[in-house]
Each structure stands twice: as C-alpha cells, then as structure tokens.
C-alpha cells in the first residue's frame, strides 16, 4: 500500500485534538507550563525522511509535548517527497507542504495597475540587490568570517569587488528599500493570487538589467549579460515562491503564537510574511548559515550549467539582502555556534537579539562506549564522517605516512560513505588510490598475506555495524577538515570519551574547549606530530577523553537544546503577544475573545467565533484537504547507523 502523503496538499494529521480552524478549542494537557502554538518553518527537511535539520527538529518537537506545532514545509525535490515523512508525534496538529523544486505558471493575468505595481516593486528589489554598499565577500568580511568563508566568497566574487549581501555597515536605507519591495511583492501576490508568472517575465529581466547598469551598481554585476540575468531571475523566482502561498491567513500562520524558522533563506520567508501580515513574531535558528552555504555550494544554475561570476555576484547579493531582512525582523536569532554567530553579525544581525543554542545530540547511544572500562586499540586512529573534498583526507593520508615512520604499528580506519553525486565517489576513489600508493600491502614474512594499514569502511558493515562501534575501534579520533560548520563527528567522539586531534576550522575550537589537540588545516606534519604525541601517552589520552565526555554531556545534549528553546518560546510569547482580531458569527469584533488563560493548559469556554477565510493558494501548491498518512520512522530509516553529515544536517 502506498502510504505517502499527497503531494503539495494542505495535510492535517488527524488526532483527537485536531479540529477545523473555525471550531478550534484549547486541548487538555497533563504537563504543566504555558501552551504555545508554534509554526515550525522548514526547507528541505522535517517532516520528510531525508534532508536538512530533520533530526534536531524531530527531537525538539518530541521534547516539547506541552506545546502545539503546525509544520510548514518546503520540499527540495520530487524524490524527497516520494520518500514520505517520519512518524509525527501527537503535538503536531497540522502539516502544510509546498514544493520549491517546481512551480507551474499560476496563469494569473495582471491588469494594467497590477503590472505597474509589480514593475515598481521589482525595480526597487533589483536596485537594492545591485547597490554596491554592502561588502559581504570583501577582504574585511573574509577575515572576520574565517578562511573557509574567504575561499567561498572569493570564488563568488569572480575577481570583481563586493559581491553583495548586507553587512553591519550596510546602509539602512538600502535595507529598507529591499524590505519594502519584498513586502510589496507579497501584498501583490496576496491580492492577485500569485507571482510565479510575473517573476519569470521579461519585465523582471529588464528590471535586473537596468539595476546592473545603474551608477553605483556592483562592479561584478555590471558585466552581466542576458544569460546571466535569466539565471538570476530564475533563481530569485525559485526563492520567492513562498510569496505566492496561502499560508498567511487567519487560519494559517496567522493563528500561531510564533513562527520558528529552522534555517535562513526560503524557510524564513514565510515567517517574514506572517510577521508583516499578522504581526506573528519570528524566531530564526541557523545551525548552518544559508549565506555561507551559498558561497561554498555548487556554482551552477537550475539547469546544471556553470554560472558566471556576474550571476554568482548578483545571487550572493540577493541572498545577503534576504538574510539581513530576516535578521532585522526576527525577535531572537539562535545560531548553533560562535562561527555561525560571526556570520550573522557581519550580515547585520543585532547582537542583543542573538542567543547561541548548541545542537542537541542523543548521548545515550554512546554511553556504552563512553562509560566502558575496556581500552580501545592503542595503535588505531579513527576518522568518521562523510567522504568529500572538504574533509581533506588527502592531508590525513600524508600525515599518516609521517606517523608510520615514528609508530610503525599504527593503523588508520576511515569510516564513512561518499557524499552524493559524482564528486564524492571520485574523491573516494582518489583517496583509495593514494592509500595504496603510500602504503603498499605489508606482510610479516614471505609466507603471509599482506595487509594495508589504511582501511575504508562504512557503517553497517561487518567490521563496524554501528556508529558507536566505529568510535570504539580506536584510541584517537582525527578530524582533518578544511571547511567545517558544527563538527558533529567530533561531538560524537567526545560522547565516547575519545581523545581527539582536529584542524582549526569552523566551530572546532569552540566545541573542543581545551579537551583535545587542535592543529592548523592543510598541515600534515602538525597533524602527524599531534597524533604521535597522543599515541605515545595513554594517560594523557585518558584525561582528555574523560574531560571531553564531561564537556559534551554538559553542552551538547538534547535536553539542554530543548530547555533552551522552551525558555525562548515563552520569552517571545510573553514579550510579543500577537494582536488578534476575532469576530463572531455576525462579523462583529469581540474585544475579549481570547482570554489571558489562553496559554495555560486546560479546557476553557468554547468560542463562538469564526475565522475569516482567505484567498485560495496557487495551483502548484493547492488541493483539497486530505488525510496525511506519514511513513513510520523505522521504515524511513536506512539500514544501519547513519554516518554523521556535515553542516546543515542538524
């Protein structure tokens, strides 16, 4: 039986607590504390089986049973939708989905006045994007954001000046122009029924061309040609598709107490519009900064063709402006680490609104290894993660060659699967070839079979059936990355009580906090010396491993993450209550329809109120309400334990 939820439909998870919006009553709760209705905004992740932010969102929702969640999810691919959802807990009362990966022309025909409104708003948007006053990607920004950011932003600049975005020194006037244009387009979409066709029109492309040719425009954008402008217009239309959704009425996001965007970019856009239309406060959480991901990500257009430097500069500017607007409107911003916080501050986030909340990870699965008295193989180094160029296994293999000169009995176990696509498979093959070249099969005698000291394994295999057993296989865990956000594999090693040697990238130093050794990236000699020092000193390994486990249990557990967000939710609701306008059956306003007890658990008097129905949504994200039958959690999981992914997976 096909148990996948219907695509692009307004889906309700039927339960005893789920009633039509016009008859909604507060449920009875057995858990103390205030009741908050949260609109959880996701892109390419929860509640789908695969994708970003799936794990931490699921843990957050399950851990806050005293609150109620409405899920608003943007999917990234047809495959993701076909895989279905994970099993949702009862506190999820409603799920609404829409695709970012496709959108048919809505067929909306604009009159003369509407066309003029669109042209004016898009002209303002393009002018704000092309304004050359925001030096994200410049040398100063790169120095503040780190070497990884420098590599990405330098490529995005394409050899020509500032690439856009909105830093702390960006003009407030330009930021206001961008926000005004964005909300003007949203109001037009609300009035006319959609924007997809208009955002793809010749009017949009010509507006971009005029903005690129205007005095003071970005230097890299001045050379943009028609193919570049078409690429930019297509990417902007894709990002702005949430403007055409019908999520912002009183029976949608207008009925929640706060919106929680689980990432920046397109996921935060519905929260911005809910704040604009109904005054719902916005919370933005970023464990992987979207703007940084844009710099370091693929440099291709939607058709898979290589994008020019001019197109990348304009897109970086657009994403920078959108990030700045989300930070400006959010009541609270919660980065996952100081590295992400620095990016947000350089993009205009107010420091007073930023609260660092570390990702919550399940510590119990590693307790057997972390509390075990059995000593690991003292001569084995372990690397665990996703195999891709950013992990710099090439430097690790060269460092291991130096280690073998001092400690000939040492072995290296590389545990992980290649990243998706041809690049990951090619990089894994290259690493295996290099390992075979550096370490020919060795044998103890002429009559024994040789054995390579480097092994490549995957979770679920006969040697490492589970993730904890991968960390238990060695006495020292190594991380050799040149680009890293929040190092998940490092935290898992700390839960296991293992001594670590890591490169100084991303949030590594913040996570380690003095409980492991840190060396410069791309320095095999320093990496080798640090590993040898730990291999030769078992007492030091034990001290560092115990300290690392204690630090991880204090800072990086699911419990601390849930507690932090619970407090933030209550703070936002108490400080920024949503102004509600409720009418009775005759359409007359009821000034005291929502009592003060609305956020206290319990069943209160039935409301004789009704909600005003909004306009229908676009055809590509609409349909009659259907019963959602989510996939079971176990059926959606892959066999074996997952290998920790890189930035953005939590």
Could you outline the blueprint of secondary structure elements for this entry?
Blueprint: E1 10-12, E2 37-43, H1 54-63, E3 68-75, H2 78-83, E4 92-99, H3 112-130, H4 139-145, H5 147-157, H6 172-192, H7 196-199, H8 202-213, H9 226-239, E5 258-261, H10 269-278, E6 282-286, H11 290-296, H12 309-329, E7 332-335, H13 338-346, H14 367-370, E8 380-384, H15 393-406, E9 411-415, H16 422-438, E10 454-457, H17 467-472, E11 476-479, H18 488-495, E12 499-503, H19 508-512, E13 517-519, H20 524-535, H21 538-555, H22 558-575, E14 626-627, H23 633-636
Parallel strand pairs: 1-14, 2-3, 2-5, 3-4, 5-6, 6-7, 8-9, 8-11, 9-10, 11-12, 12-13
Antiparallel strand pairs: 1-4
């Amino acid at each position: 039986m096909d148990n996948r939820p219907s695509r692009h439909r307004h889906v309700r998870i039927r339960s005893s607590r789920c009633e039509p919006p016009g008859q909604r009553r507060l449920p009875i709760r057995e858990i103390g504390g205030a009741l908050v209705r949260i609109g959880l905004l996701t892109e390419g992740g929860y509640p789908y089986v695969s994708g970003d932010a799936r794990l931490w969102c699921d843990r957050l929702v399950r851990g806050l049973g005293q609150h109620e969640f409405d899920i608003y999810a943007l999917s990234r691919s047809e495959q993701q939708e076909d895989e279905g959802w994970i099993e949702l807990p009862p506190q999820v009362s409603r799920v609404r989905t829409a695709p970012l990966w496709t959108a048919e022309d809505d067929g909306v025909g604009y009159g003369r006045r509407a066309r003029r409104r669109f042209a004016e708003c898009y002209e303002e948007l393009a002018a704000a994007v092309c304004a050359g006053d925001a030096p994200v990607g410049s040398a100063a920004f790169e120095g503040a954001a780190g070497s990884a950011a420098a590599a990405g932003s330098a490529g995005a600049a394409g050899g020509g000046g500032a690439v856009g975005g909105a830093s702390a020194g960006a003009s407030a006037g330009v930021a206001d122009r961008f926000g005004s244009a964005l909300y003007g387009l949203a109001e037009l979409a609300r009035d006319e029924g959609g924007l997809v066709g208009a955002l793809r029109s010749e009017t949009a492309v010509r507006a971009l061309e005029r903005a690129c040719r205007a005095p003071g425009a970005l230097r890299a954008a001045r050379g943009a040609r028609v193919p570049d402008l078409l690429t930019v217009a297509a990417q902007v239309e894709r990002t702005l598709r949430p403007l055409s959704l019908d999520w912002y009425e009183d029976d949608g996001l207008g009925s929640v107490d706060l919106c929680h965007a689980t990432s920046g970019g397109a996921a935060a856009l519905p929260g911005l519009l809910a704040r604009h239309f109904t005054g719902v406060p916005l919370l933005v959480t970023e464990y992987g900064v979207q703007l940084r991901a844009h710099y370091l990500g693929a440099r291709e257009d939607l058709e898979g063709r290589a994008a020019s430097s001019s197109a990348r500069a304009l897109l970086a500017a657009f994403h920078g402006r959108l990030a700045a607007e989300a930070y400006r409107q959010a009541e609270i911003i919660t980065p996952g680490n100081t590295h992400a916080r620095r990016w947000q501050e350089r993009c205009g986030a107010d420091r007073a609104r930023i609260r660092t909340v570390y990702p919550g990870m399940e510590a119990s699965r590693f307790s057997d290894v972390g509390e075990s008295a059995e000593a690991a193989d003292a001569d084995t180094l372990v690397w665990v993660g996703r195999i891709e160029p950013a992990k710099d296994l090439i430097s690790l293999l060269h460092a291991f060659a130096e280690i073998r000169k001092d400690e000939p009995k040492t072995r290296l176990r590389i545990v992980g699967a290649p990243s998706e696509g041809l690049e990951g498979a090619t990089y894994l093959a290259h690493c295996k070839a290099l390992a075979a070249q550096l370490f020919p099969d060795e044998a103890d005698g002429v009559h024994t079979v040789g054995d390579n000291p480097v092994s490549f394994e995957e979770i679920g295999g006969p040697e490492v059936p589970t993730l904890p057993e991968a960390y238990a296989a060695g006495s020292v865990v190594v991380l050799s990355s040149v680009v890293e956000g929040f190092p998940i594999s490092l935290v898992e090693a700390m839960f296991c009580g293992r001594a670590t040697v890591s490169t100084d990238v991303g949030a590594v130093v913040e996570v380690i906090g003095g409980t492991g050794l840190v060396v410069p990236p791309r320095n095999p000699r320093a990496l080798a010396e640090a590993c040898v020092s730990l291999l030769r000193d078992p007492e030091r390994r034990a001290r560092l491993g115990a300290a690392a486990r204690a630090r991880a249990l204090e800072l990086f557990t699911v419990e601390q993450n849930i507690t932090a967000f619970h407090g933030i939710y209550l703070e936002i609701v108490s400080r920024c209550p949503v102004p509600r306008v409720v009418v009775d059956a005759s359409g007359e306003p009821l000034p005291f329809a929502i009592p003060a007890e609305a956020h206290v658990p319990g069943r209160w008097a039935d409301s004789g109120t009704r909600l005003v129905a909004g306009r229908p949504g676009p055809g590509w994200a609409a349909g009659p309400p259907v019963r959602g039958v989510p996939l079971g959690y176990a059926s959606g999981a892959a066999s074996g334990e997952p290998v920790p992914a890189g930035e953005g997976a939590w």
